[in-house]
Design a protein that fits this description.
Elements (H helix, E strand, L loop, with lengths): L3 H17 L2 H19 L2 H10 L5 H13 L5 H6 L2 H17 L8 H7 L1 H16 L4
């Protein structure tokens, strides 16, 4: 996982950019980015394609960092404005579920090993279920 300093730097750079957008664009961008990440977490074939297309990336680590460091910021105004209270509850539930499993995920052996991990299969299934709880954009 990325360091606290990296997370704080993200919030200092990305949050003002999002907050500087017109509200409709800000809300749409926040929702779109998080939905795309949930879609990737929930789609094994998309994960394999990503690893093929971006071989330099450590996709297992990227998926963890993207969620916990870059996308899920429940206390940020741009985040809370983008999702209803029911959606925020579903996202918080996913966050807790993912967080309880991330410590056992194989982070350095690529997508194939990740996808063989029972906990990753559970996280992927939960991501798909969480997506179903989000209102369409």
């Amino acid at each position: 996982m990325r360091s606290r300093a990296v997370r704080e730097a993200f919030l200092l750079t990305a949050a003002p950019t999002l907050l500087g957008m017109p509200e409709e664009d800000r809300l749409h961008t926040t929702r779109r980015m998080l939905r795309q990440l949930l879609e990737l977490i929930g789609d094994f074939s998309a994960q394999r394609k990503y690893e093929r297309d971006v071989p330099i990336a450590n996709l297992p680590a990227e998926l963890v960092c993207d969620w916990f460091d870059d996308q899920y910021h429940p206390d940020a105004r741009f985040f809370s404005d983008a999702f209803s209270s029911q959606e925020r509850a579903a996202l918080a539930d996913f966050n807790a579920f993912y967080g309880a499993r991330k410590g056992v995920l194989p982070m350095t052996t690529g997508v194939d090993a990740l996808q063989l991990c029972k906990e990753w299969e559970e996280v992927s299934e939960k991501a798909r279920a969480t997506l179903a709880e989000l209102a369409p954009d």
